[in-house]
Specification:
Chain B: Residues 1-91 form the HTH arsR-type domain. The complex is a heterodimer. Chain A is of the alpha+beta class. Chain A is built from four helices and six strands. In chain A, strands 1-6-5-4-3-2 form a six-stranded antiparallel sheet, covered by helices on one side. Chain B is built from six helices and three strands, in the order ααβααββαα. The chains are: A alpha+beta, B alpha+beta.
Amino acid sequence: MTDDPRTIRVDEFLSHPPAKVWQALTDSELMARWLMPNDFKLEIGHRFTFHTRPIPAVGFGGVGHSEVLDFVPEKMLQIAWRTAPDDASSLDSVVTFVLEPEGTGTRLFVVHDGFDPDDPYQALSRRIMSGRTKGGWKGVGQRISTVIDESLT
Amino acid sequence: MSTLTDDVFAALASPVRRELLRLLLDGPRTVNDLASHFDMRRPSVSEHLKVLRDAELVSEHRVGRERRYQLEARPLVDLQDWLHPYERFWRERVKALRDVLEDM
């Protein structure tokens, strides 16, 4: 968990070469299997939608409105990530996938940027997580993630 | 909003209870162990633990003559969902990507 409320970063080592990871990232049918059903095309400016489970905690209704913003084959893919106009909360964010060769595999970075720090959900979560006051939760987020990962495996 | 109950938010509103949860992130502890971290009487610590227990954030287990407290993962998952929903979302997606790559 990052302390910057506007950005989420996740990185993961995948034991497959970047070319293969790139295929899984950009082939509509493969994307449907790991991300969500979509009408994606690798074409800058192409607009598409994602269908997934709603996330009530952030007022996300389950349909993501997206657009291919930029890409560099086997290195980087950047897409817009927007909520539907009638969702409870609005989000106009950008997801960037970066692939870096590591050994015979790939390190995948997912950077989700553009969360609104003034969003009431975000503001309340920061108040709980804030490290400035005694008993704040700075640094605890990462450990919660670890506990959760352990409980899910 | 989410499946989080008001109990959970009320439980998290206290710095003492957040500190208790932080201590329990390292693993189960006895009441005495937990109480030694605070400058208050043990019954007061027990009261805070009861609030956490009622919110199902912790559970109590008897080990011999001692009572031990441990974290419960499920409300933490909900809490994490609420604090940073997209982080959990991307972690899960990347795990699914790993499976797809294995099948390719």
